[in-house]
Amino acid sequence: KTSVVLFTSDLRVHDHPPLRAAVARADAVVPLFVRDRAIADTGFAGPNREAFLADCLADLDRRLRERGGRLVVRGGDVVDQVRAVMAETDATELHLSGGVSGYAHARERRLRAALERDGGELLVHDGVITALPPGAVTPAGRDHFAVFTPYHRQWCAQRPRDVLGPPRGVRVPDHVGSEPVPGRDGVEGVSPGLARGGESVGRARWKAWLRDGIDAYGEGGQDDLAGDATSRLSPHLHFGTVSATELVRDARRRQGEGAENFVRQLCWRDFHHQVLAARPAAASRDYRTREDRWRTERTAAEDIRAWQEGRTGYPIVDAAMRQLLHEGWMHNRGRLLTASFLTKTLYVDWRVGARHFRRFLVDGDLADNQLNWQWIAGTGTDSRPNRVLNPVRQGHRYDPSGDYVRRWVPELAEVAGGAVHEPWKLPAAQRARLGYPEPVVDLAEGLARFRRARGIE
Ligand code: FAD
Q1: From ligand 1's centre to the CA of 140, what distance in Å?
Q2: How close is the Cα of 227 to the center of ligand 1, in Å?
Q3: Residues 11 and 94 reside in one and the same domain
Q4: Domain containing 53: what range?
């Protein structure tokens, strides 16, 4: 008997229930990745994620080869390719991790219908991409939680599934053909400081974080922009090169406040995934409608470009936006304050910002990106929809030394200490020499526009 395992956002051999089940139930297994034309056509796969993905596939192939197997890569329509591989190998079963997006649900439905016609069976494994599957905990009478705290409480009380080791051997039928496993070299437009992908790197990062980072996590250090003391595991979680279930288990074993704080962040990830699974439309429409008449690419083109390029004249905003362009990643505090600046201070549609983030973020994730944007825009699950983060105060508070700004905004490198957050206070002659832009908006005016628009007295 032959089974196919279709890899999606779960590019690992450790703790992979579909792979383990396929190996246990069949004599031969085809580990398959389809470069899905539909995903390429949406433009969702930006160069940073494409390059990281290439690393992940190369590493997955290596890890499968260590176990006697290999990765089969195909391109085109995912359902057509799965059917073709199943026909070529006389496979009767397809194993797949359950996804949360509208697209993932549609893919699952199409695969199920196609396999029913062809006489095959689809086995969907839940709780592979998140620590707990969406829907594992629900409030009475509703299909998802809209408030984090009660979700967190119930989530913590659940026993997650067991963590699985990698399969010992994977036997792939000889005759099944594969496109070459892509490398990142051919991908153009990649951010120069992009991290490397793959399960080997992801697991090493996790082990190092458990050893050296996690204990101090949450003592305020995770908000210190210059300190850069978060795990940077988000791209690995997005591509599934580490397992959220395994991270939760290991962190709980470690114990302590830092580990607890870290597990809470992983719960945030599950929280957003269960919102999107229940409300797939929230990827593009307000979760809670506030009837905002946002400024758009047509009416605020100049402001949007300044924000995207890190030229708003607010150093902390510009530093974070430039980090995004350079690394394909941004610190969480940076994401919060740049998103607040775009949506509240410039009053620009959150979708404009979410699209730019998704284009560059290596961890760009439909659930986490869109719903965090909605949280900041006050159209999502936040209980304080009209809160505005003041970029000057955020700068002094989360980058008190100014080191983060000087790292990313070289025009201000000569300005010492926290003064870097208010360049407009520098002598006019020095300002002219530095060549750093003037603020695109007056903060008080921006705030007044937002309050008017939201009908706040
Ligand atoms: P750590 O602080 O080490 O946290 C560990 C893990 O917890 C993260 O890797 C992540 O998986 C999870 N996590 C932490 N905070 C959140 C959160 N608020 N929501 C969901 N999961 C969280 N995260 C993404 O993974 N992809 C995105 O596309 C994304 N877009 C965002 C957009 C905005 C506007 C904002 C405010 C936040 C966004 N986040 C996103 C959440 C968060 O900023 C990142 O997960 C975090 O900065 C990643 O760095 P880290 O791995 O070092 O995080």
Answers
A1: 28
A2: 17
A3: yes
A4: 2-128
| Distances in whole angstroms, Cα of residue 199 to Cα of each of 62, 164, 218, 439 | 10, 15, 26, 43
Q: Which of 223, 234, 344 to mutate to test the pocket of ligand 1 (most atoms within 8 A of CB)?
A: 234
Tokens, residue 159: 């026993």
User: 223 CB under 6 A from ligand 1?
Assistant: no
Decide if 170 is inside a domain.
no
Q: Whose CA is nearest to atom 42 of ligand 1?
A: 332
| Same domain flag for 121 and 137 | no
Q: Which residues of 245-259 are buried (b: 16+ CB within 10 A; e: fewer)?
A: bbbbbbbeebeeebb
233 lines ligand 1 (CB under 6 A): yes
For a substitution probing ligand 1, which of 250, 332, 337 has the most ligand atoms within 8 Å of its CB? 332
CATH number at residue 12: 3.40.50.620
User: Above 0.90 for ipTM, yes or no?
Assistant: yes
Same domain as 155, residue 145: yes
CATH number of 142's domain: 1.25.40.80
Alpha-carbon distance 314 to 316, whole Å? 6
How far apart (Å, rounded) are the C-alpha atoms in residues 283 and 368?
10
Rounded Cα distance between 246 and 240, Å, is: 11
In tens, the pLDDT along 296-313 reads 999 999 999 999 999 999
Query: Could you report the per-residue pLDDT of 274-302, keeping only the tens digit for each?
Result: 999 999 999 999 999 888 999 999 999 99
Say how far apart CA 72 and CA 56 lie, in whole Å.
14
Pick from 128, 146, 176: which residue ends a domain? 128
Same-domain status, 244 and 378 = no
Q: How far is the CA of 335 from the centre of ligand 1 (A)?
A: 9
Domains: count for the chain: 3
* Arithmetic mean of pLDDT, 6-31: 97
Which of 329, 351, 363 has most ligand 1 atoms within 8 Å of CB, for mutation?
A: 363
Domain annotation covers residue 180:
no
The 2-6 sheet, strands edge to edge: 72-76, 28-36, 2-6, 93-97, 121-125
Question: Which pair of tokens denotes residue 255?
Answer: 């114990």
Give residue 270 CA to ligand 1 midpoint distance, Å.
Answer: 11
- Contact between residue 115 and residue 145 where contact means Cβ atoms under 8 Å apart: no
